[in-house]
């Protein structure tokens, strides 16, 4: 795990150079809300990407990301300065995503047991996602749809597998950082990554086959 | 190097996240092993698919403003409790909670044993306790209150548990009751 002093950049609001996360946290605890604005600016995009890849609903992702930062502020006194703020905030985000997934599963169970309504039929997981403009009717469409399939495959992984694959493969965290966020040993992270990639390879096999040198897809699923 | 060890490295090599010795070992192995060469190609294909999924839209300044405004409007503050909880060990908190619960039980279980001293309106004493037991409890209390916290730390005693014992003694608990609570 990296130390608390890994992030050391200029603070746009406070104008202070060399502001570490732990310094900002200390100032937040002294009542400086501007310091917390700097922390939000530092981590809002990585946290939002992580949440968006996990929940696959743009509106919910932004709301959840805000919940993460509000909850983190309320719990700031619990942050231990010998840990990395990045790791800590991702742990909170991970827990929020798990809560959200549980609520969604319960909601789906209720919906499945109730008579269907026209509104429910529009709940495609990819409907609400922002994506590149589909200006090009051929390449744009294919790329968007392919990206959506990959994101659906990732979102369909179990909580534990999705966490490691998003943090390591998408966000570029180290094994040690992922282990700290997931709360498990590095060896467990590696085995979960292996399982996650195996599942993704299985789910995306036709798309992978189309990308292998000298291979042609044996069905047209990859082009749909 | 065996295929098993090479396959453990292949994913990091496919994502350009492997160290040079690992890259070299994989390159050397796949030049002679068609099966691992195919695994490497599959890993590269998956990595390129994953990169297609790309970053989502970045959040702008309005997100930060909205978050801070919510914090202010909901009057969210780093709670004092969370500050304490972050610095105190769970067993110590458990000891304090247990002691508080025990005090409450003692007070509720023996209502006849307590009386208000007339005139003060606030002090509470043990009316029916024998004088000898009271003196003994006072001695225990003095001994416990004289505990030096640094010394307690050296002896691996818990100051929170000690303070709980003091509170229990104040409430009239005998040493047997304190021992029975595991303190």
Q: Unreliable segments of chain A (pLDDT under 50, ≥5 consecutive)?
A: 1-10, 117-139, 217-224
**Counting H and I runs of at least 4 residues, what is the number of helices of chain A?**
9
- Coarse shape of chain A: globular
Structural class of chain B: mainly alpha
Tell me, briefly, the overall form of chain B: elongated
Count of strand segments of chain B = 2
Protein described:
The complex is a heterodimer of chains A (224) and B (183). Chain A has 2 domains: 123 residues, RNA polymerase sigma factor, region 2, helix turn helix motif (Rna Polymerase Sigma Factor, Chain: A), CATH 1.10.1740; 94 residues, Winged helix-like DNA-binding domain superfamily/Winged helix DNA-binding domain (Arc Repressor Mutant, subunit A), CATH 1.10.10. In chain A, α3 crosses α4, α6 runs antiparallel to α7 and α7 crosses α8. In chain A, strands 1-2 form a two-stranded antiparallel ribbon. The termini of chain A are far apart. Helices cover 62% and strands 2% of the residues of chain A. Chain A is an all-alpha fold and 224 residues long. Chain A is built from 9 helices and 2 strands; from the N terminus they run ββααααααααα. Chain B is mainly alpha-helical. Chain B has 2 domains: 51 residues, no CATH class; 96 residues, no CATH class. Chain B has 10 helices and 2 strands. Chain B has a two-stranded antiparallel ribbon with strand order 1-2. In chain B, a hairpin with a 7-residue loop joins β1 and β2. Classes of the chains: A mainly alpha (224), B mainly alpha (183). Chains A and B meet through α2, α3, α5, α8 and α9 of A and α3, α4 and α5 of B.
């Amino acid at each position: 795990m990296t130390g608390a002093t890994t992030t050391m950049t200029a603070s746009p609001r406070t104008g202070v150079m060399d502001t570490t996360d732990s310094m900002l946290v200390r100032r937040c605890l002294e009542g400086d809300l501007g310091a917390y604005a700097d922390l939000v600016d530092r981590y809002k995009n990585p946290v939002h990407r992580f949440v968006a890849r996990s929940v696959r609903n743009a509106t919910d992702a932004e709301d959840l990301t805000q919940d993460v930062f509000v909850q983190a502020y309320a719990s700031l006194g619990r942050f231990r300065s010998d840990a990395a703020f990045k790791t800590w905030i991702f742990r909170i985000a991970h827990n929020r995503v798990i809560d959200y997934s549980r609520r969604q599963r319960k909601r789906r169970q209720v919906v499945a047991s109730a008579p269907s309504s026209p509104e429910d039929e529009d709940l495609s997981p990819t409907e609400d996602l922002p994506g590149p403009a589909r200006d090009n009717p051929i390449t744009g469409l294919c790329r968007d749809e392919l990206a959506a399939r990959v994101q659906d495959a990732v979102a369909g992984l179990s909580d534990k597998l999705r966490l490691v694959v998003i943090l390591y493969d998408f966000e570029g965290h180290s094994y040690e950082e992922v282990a700290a966020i997931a709360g498990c040993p590095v060896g467990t992270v590696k085995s979960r990554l292996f399982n996650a990639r195996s599942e993704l390879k299985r789910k995306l096999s036709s798309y992978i086959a189309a990308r292998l040198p000298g291979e042609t897809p044996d069905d047209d699923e990859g082009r749909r | 190097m065996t295929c098993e060890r090479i396959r453990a490295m292949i994913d990091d090599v496919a994502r350009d996240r492997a160290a040079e010795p690992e890259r070299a070992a994989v390159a050397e192995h796949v030049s002679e092993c068609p099966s691992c060469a195919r695994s490497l190609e599959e890993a590269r294909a998956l990595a390129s698919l994953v990169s297609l999924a790309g970053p989502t839209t970045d959040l702008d300044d309005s997100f930060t403003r909205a978050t801070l405004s919510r914090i202010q409007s909901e009057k969210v503050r780093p709670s004092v409790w969370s500050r304490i909880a972050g610095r105190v060990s769970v067993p110590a908190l458990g000891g304090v909670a247990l002691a508080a619960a025990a005090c409450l039980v003692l007070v509720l279980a023996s209502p006849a044993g307590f009386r208000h001293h007339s005139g003060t309106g606030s002090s509470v004493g043990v009316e029916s306790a024998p004088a000898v037991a009271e003196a003994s409890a006072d001695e225990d209390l003095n001994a416990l209150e004289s505990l030096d916290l640094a010394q307690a730390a050296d002896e691996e005693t818990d100051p929170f548990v000690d303070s709980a014992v003091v509170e229990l003694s104040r409430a009239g608990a005998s040493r047997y009751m304190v021992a029975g609570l595991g303190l």
